[in-house]
Design goal:
30% helix, 3 helices, alpha+beta
Length: 125
Amino acid sequence: MAWCPLCRSEYREGVTVCPECGKALVDELPSETEPEWDPTDWVTVEEVGDRATAAIVEGFLLEQGFPVRLLDRSDSELVTTLGELSIIEVQVPAGDLDRALDLLAERDEALEAEPGPGDEGEDRG
């Protein structure tokens, strides 16, 4: 069986990353110690529907100096029958929430202000 070294949950064979905390699973649990962090200290700043978008948001926040983790809440059983059905939470430490939300809002406003493909030089009148 596979184990998460932080939250100490057990997972079936084939699972390699803990869906709760994002840590790589191990074959044996380390000796009983306090976890590196408290999962309640992380909060979701954005939920996205695919891994590519999650990676973009994660990269932006990392560039701004935030610790970031991704929690993939995909239902693997539904994915096989319905195609990709993902909910990926992009999380930061609770103390960084307001600053992260402000920066994401600024980024979104800047993206909306940029002209889209075909917008330049078009006569709309």
